[in-house]
Design goal:
By secondary structure, the chain is an alpha/beta fold. The chain is built from 14 helices and 17 strands. The strands form 4 sheets. It has a 5-stranded parallel β-sheet, sandwiched between helices. It has a 5-stranded parallel β-sheet with strand order 9-8-10-11-12, with helices on both faces.
Length: about 500
């Protein structure tokens, strides 16, 4: 399938200058597609335009499917674009469905006339636009470059900017991963994120933050979304709630809270703004609504503040009350606790023989892995699985999914460092740490086997025992590891 660039534009900006002529946007897109085809990675790229008149351009199933299949969206910004509710729907659909609330690496903006950035979709506020308009003291009115039809020998800036945009699009499309085929069949559920383990995937409401905790909000949101259970964060981006209208604001806030499995609010020094329709600040309105929802559905409501905040210096009484009740904790530790609370608890073994361990050995250490397996099974009554090597045709994500399922069903992992390179060992440790992040104590071991002289593996971890077997494999180090697992780490 050809990579698509979805063209979003206002019909009023594409009216032909004279009868039988092409509109400015249509003319531009045709030339852009040709220019992209000449760039590395741009062959086969298709620019897709919906030529229906705006009153009939609702985001229907056909349009939604096309948006989902698109690698990027190219929007022609203008006062007409910002006034068009259909253009707003197109951009919102792309940002929400393709970009997960933000799509900075997939949205490209061509500005045909000066626009007010504050009126842009919140998910694209940080994107730089390409200015395709000109004005001067002699001709102060703004008009698109190359208006009404670009001249091959005169409009150098038009052609330079078009060429630069074509190269940026081709490079970005080349760098983007292939979209999973299943995501092209239907719109993702607004209730749950796509996940290979939907039962473990949770919806987390995180209060819309004030500016001083925006960085922490984005850090935690990214951590939850990229976690292997792919938790869904609501709201999907900051500033999403319609602050100008009380009814709409409360409805949007209540709708998100009703979907959540866990409620979180990050608090800082700033009291933040008050709406025009109330004397209570937004941060307090959210706290009150979240508390009510938590009590109604018996959910956890976790509030965080930096332990360095001096409460005596907080002037706003409402904010001071919220900060006093919040958990004062190092932010990294708070994030770890959130992940732990959302993650399913590993099955605890009661009988000695029910303990399961995964042995991860690279190709040159497979024989050593089999010897370890024999000791674990025959001498220590452990169920031991020697992890399969990846098939030549197997994609990295598929193999990671296989290892994830193996480790989540086991009480521990044993990584074999014999003849394998240290980089392989470190990579396996990183994957295991990512999968078993929520487990406390010892959940793994690094068996440092023969040969005796080799490069240091470079790993130190509170969750990983190092078993020194460089002079030869023995039972005692393995028994210490298994005893530690049986005692719960």
């Amino acid at each position: 399938m050809a990579a698509k660039i979805f063209i979003s534009y206002a019909h009023a900006d594409n009216l032909p200058y004279e009868k039988g002529a092409k509109g400015w946007v249509t003319n531009f897109v045709e030339k852009l597609q040709n220019a992209i085809g000449m760039k590395e990675g741009g062959r086969g790229v298709e620019c897709w335009m919906d030529h229906r008149l705006e009153p009939h351009r609702a985001v229907d199933d056909e349009l939604r499917k096309c948006i989902l299949e698109s690698k990027c969206i190219l929007a022609f910004m203008s006062p007409n674009y910002l006034e068009s509710k259909w253009c707003g729907k197109e951009m919102n659909t792309f940002v929400e469905l393709v970009g997960g609330g933000k799509a900075n690496d997939r949205v490209f903006l061509v500005e045909l006339q000066p626009t007010d950035r504050e009126k842009w979709h919140p998910g694209i506020h940080e994107i730089s636009e390409v200015k395709f308009w000109s004005s001067s003291l002699e001709k102060p009115s703004h008009k698109p470059l190359g208006w009404p039809v670009p001249k091959l020998t005169a409009d150098d800036k038009y052609w330079d900017e078009l060429n630069s945009l074509a190269e940026s699009l081709a490079n970005q499309i080349k760098a983007l991963p292939e979209a999973p085929k299943e995501s092209l069949k239907e719109e993702p559920s607004a209730e749950r994120p796509p996940s290979s383990d939907s039962a473990s995937s949770k919806v987390v409401w995180m209060g819309d933050p004030n500016d001083d905790v925006l960085e922490q909000w984005e850090t935690l949101a990214t951590l939850l979304q990229n976690h292997h259970h792919h938790h869904l964060v609501l709201p999907k981006f900051t500033g999403a709630y319609p602050n100008h209208d009380e009814t709409l604001y409360r409805q949007s806030l209540s709708a998100d809270l009703a979907k959540a499995d866990l409620l979180i609010q990050l608090l800082g020094n700033l009291a933040g703004k008050k709406p025009s329709w109330a004397n209570t600040r937004f941060v307090q309105l959210q706290a009150e609504a979240a508390k009510s929802e938590a009590e109604r559905r018996k959910l956890s409501l976790l509030s965080w503040r930096d332990p360095d905040i001096d409460l005596d210096k907080i002037q706003d009484a409402g904010l001071k009350e919220l900060l006093t009740a919040a958990t004062a904790l190092n932010f990294d530790e708070f994030c770890r606790q959130i992940i732990e609370q959302l993650s399913p608890k590993p099955a605890q073994s009661s009988a000695l023989g029910s303990l399961s361990v995964v042995i991860n050995a690279d190709e040159p250490d497979r024989e050593l892995g089999r010897q370890i397996q024999d000791i674990l099974v025959d001498d220590l009554a452990v169920n031991a699985t020697l992890a399969a090597e990846p098939m030549p045709t197997q994609k990295p994500d598929e193999y990671f999914g296989h290892m994830k399922r193996q480790l989540e069903c086991s009480q521990g992992v044993l990584i074999v460092y014999g003849k394998a390179p240290p980089s392989w060992v470190q990579s396996q440790n990183a994957d295991a740490t990512r999968i078993l992040l929520s487990r406390k104590g010892i959940w793994g071991a690094l068996l440092d086997g023969p040969p005796e002289k080799k490069l240091d593996h470079g790993i130190k971890s509170r969750n990983l025992m190092v078993l020194d077997c460089r002079l030869g494999l023995s039972r005692d180090p393995l028994e210490r590891f298994i005893d530690t697992l049986r005692k719960g780490g």
